[in-house]
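We modelled the chain as a single entity of 191 amino acids. Its sequence is:
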Amino acid sequence: PATTEIYTLSLHDALPIFLNLARVVTFRDPFYGKVSLTKSMFQKIIKNFEADIYGQKIFLDVSHRPDQGAAGEFVRLFLDGNKLRGEVEFTDYGIDAVKKRKMQYVSIEFTDNYTNPETEKEHGPLMMGAALTLRPRVKKLEPIELSFDADETPSLILPSVQTILKLEQDITMNKHLKILLAALVDRKSVV
């Protein structure tokens, strides 16, 4: 299910953030050729994640450079309509990449059919990691945006959540304006 909760990112405490990783789509890539991402594939990726088939934690890095460190750790994968989403605990390095380097998208690293190197058993689609990036291969995903409150604590607010908040703000403001307008009309009629 979609979430409209806002999560504040602390620079010292990891906090889960929900990211868009991919969506159901078929496209042609100059390097990989024809790529088809399906709901069935995402369900298998989630199943393999939950079963710890890869045998290690799955990390988010920056620019597909795991040697530079982890930007976050995936704690959960789930479907949200036709999108694969991930719950990530960000590190300071990841927050910095989004805030200062404007890494606004996520690019997943996966295989269509993971084979365990020890048992040679095939497990189907598996996500091995993902990266914060400027140019994801899967387009039309919501960008990551950090906003800041008065004490400069960054908050991640997805554009869809921003739209909902703006709508709620407008509704609330209109409600209060109507009450004020009615009070002014009542006051004029008394005078």
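As a brief sanity check on the tokenised model: Confidence is low (pLDDT under 50) at residues 1-14. Helices lie at 39-50, 92-99, 159-190.
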